[in-house]
Amino acid sequence: MVVTTLGRRRILGYRAAAQGLDRTSAGRDRVLALGVQDTPYGSARDALAARSDDAAAEHDSLVLVWSWRGAPHLHRPGDLAFLAAALWPVNDTDATTRIGTGQIREGARRGLRAFTEAAEAMGAALTGPMTKGELSAAVSAAVPADLTYHCPSCRTRHISGALFQQVGLAARVRVCPQGRSTHLDVLPEGIGPDAVPERAEGTAAALHRYADVLAPVTPAGLAAFLGTDIATIRAVRPACCRPAIRGCRPGTGSSWCRTERAGRRSGDRSAAPVSSSSTGRYEGSGGRGPRHGTRSRCRSSRSSRCPCGRGTNSRPRRSDWPAPGSAPARRWGMPADDPATAPGRATGCRGRRRQ
Question: Is the entire prediction scored with pTM above 0.85?
Answer without folding.
Answer: no
